[in-house]
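Box 3.1 A note on notation
Throughout this textbook, protein chains are presented in two layers. The first layer is the amino acid sequence; the second is a token string describing backbone geometry. Keep the layers aligned when reading.
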Amino acid sequence: MAESSALMGSLLSIIHPEMYRRSMEGFSYLAAHPELVKEGEEVLQVLGAWSSPFSGYSLISNRRTPVHRDNSARPEWYDLLATFSSYTNGVLEFPGLGLTIDYPPGSLVALCGKIIQHAVPEVTGSRVCIAHYMKDNVHQRLQVPAAGWMTLDTRSD
């Protein structure tokens, strides 16, 4: 899991560098100020092994995911979805966009889950998804400024 988490962090550092930096600032701040949380000493132990910029994970196994938005994030932030196992007929639906994409095992999808409705209907076989996300209240608690929209600087030097 540590290698996979580090890989997800590496991907985030490429697709949204500010989001990656801000998250890592938050973890560094928490490591320097464990008294901010009730279980400060335990948190320090977890941070010693934590290899991801994401503050949360959800493991979704063998179930359909109804249409939803991810309400605990910020609109500008990416969630990363990684699928595993052995299944067929996997699709990821974006009803508000009128879009359905193939979602086979081994897929990796980045989306702004707070603003884009998404769903995964039932599949044939065994589907496992690990959803990587950040919670806005964690950043607020750590007093780390939230990353804004990813922008591309098109100015020529």
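The radius of gyration is 17 Å. The beta strands are 56-61, 65-68, 79-88, 91-94, 99-102, 108-111, 118-120, 124-133.
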